[in-house]
Amino acid sequence: MSNEITKRKNFIPVTEELISYLDQFGRCYSLPATYNDLRAFSESYPLFDKEGNATYWSSVLYPRELQQELYPKLTSIYSLLRTGDFHAVPHLYVERVDYCEFGNSRPFRVRVVNQYNDNYDHFYVKTADASRVYGLELEHLLSPNRINYLMHSSGTLVEEHIAGVPGDAFIRDYLRRPDFNGVRLAKEFVKFSERCFIRLLGDMRSYNYVIDMTPDFEEVQYRVRAIDFDQQSYEGRKNLYLPQFFKENNPVVQLCSTCLNFPTMKQYQEEERSLISRRYLSEHQRITALLHCMKNNAVEPFEKVVQLRSELGHFHNTHRFDACKSMGEIVELNLETMLGRHLE
User: Fold this and answer.
1) Are residues 123 and 183 in the same domain?
2) Model pTM greater than 0.90?
3) With the CA atoms of 145, 139, 19 and 29 taken in that order, what torsion angle do they form, in degrees rounded to the nearest 10?
4) What is the distance between the alpha carbons of residues 244 and 252, in angstroms, rounded to a whole number?
5) I need a labelling partner for 6 at 20 to 30 A (CA). Which of 93, 275, 280, 290 fits?
């Protein structure tokens, strides 16, 4: 049965305890511009891709006086994100600001350009949601990918751009190429699915992750990376944390079934559990502090907690989940249960 999310996720505010955690680990800053500042645009127009197709984004325009004040602040934020210093080099400038009403975070995307060589980069400004912050932190601590983001105490979240081919575009444009290595992608998708389920990151439909491609001798190496963290341990259905149950991922699931047999899939799952357990042990103090914030901020709908603890208890064949009263407790127990012997 395929997954479907029919309702918009409730917004979960960031608590003082979580802000204190972020400040302790160098994530919290007093930023010169906030999400509300970017909302003061005066007009917008649709943004199209290189093929002329409509996107979910619109480019926004600001009154001249506001733009002259706002854009230098945005380059300062970009400098802080990339170098840890508010002082932006003078040859960087903001070329464009885009806005997306699709999704929970309704982000702004800022394009910063180097005027010497026209090279550009992006970063995102969003309203901070506690679920997303938890998702970003767990990705940083437990996955092979480091995540760079900043938080303002007012509730503004700044994230770096995660490079890669969006999953839906990869499925459309790459799967049938003659030089495509299906076994390598299948391996990485199995590992990606395992990472999502272990830390309970949901809604990994094809447009919520990217494929990072790296040339490797005569072949290409793939890595599947999540780019949307809004559904970190929020939904009640277990299968929403398993990417293979989303219909948008069916072509990749079929590829996995064709290229990998069951023992090989189990091998890749065990490899991923071993790697995650090493990160869990090395960052145990920080993960414990994060989970403490999650358990103390149990504002997700309790009926979802009840449903998820029941389905995970049935899946793992244990009654230990019955006592969980929050998603934080469920995440903690699921980590311990799935990593199991690797933590001994």
Assistant:
1) no
2) yes
3) 20
4) 8
5) 290
Cα gap 155→295, rounded to integer Å:
20
**Ramachandran assignment for 84, one of left (phi > 0), alpha (psi -120 to 50 degrees), beta (any other):** left
Q: Is 191 helix (H, G, I), strand (E, B) or coil?
A: helix
By the 8 A CB rule, do 40 and 161 touch?
no
Same domain? For 182 and 102 the reply is: no
Instruction: List % helix, strand, coil for the chain (3-state, nearest 5).
Output: 50, 20, 35
List the Cα angle 167/168/173 in 5-degree steps.
100
Short-list 73, 115, 110, 65, CA closest to 90? 115
Pairwise CA distance, residues 174 & 210, whole Å: 13
Judgement on whether residues 197 and 281 belong to the same structural domain of the protein? yes
Q: Tens digits of per-residue pLDDT, 230-272?
A: 999 999 999 999 999 999 999 999 999 999 999 999 999 999 9
Count of domains observed in the chain = 2
Could you tell me which of 174, 259, 261, 250 has the C-alpha nearest to residue 211? 174
Quote the domain boundaries for residue 93: 27-128+148-160
**108-114 vs 120-127, strand pairing mode:** antiparallel
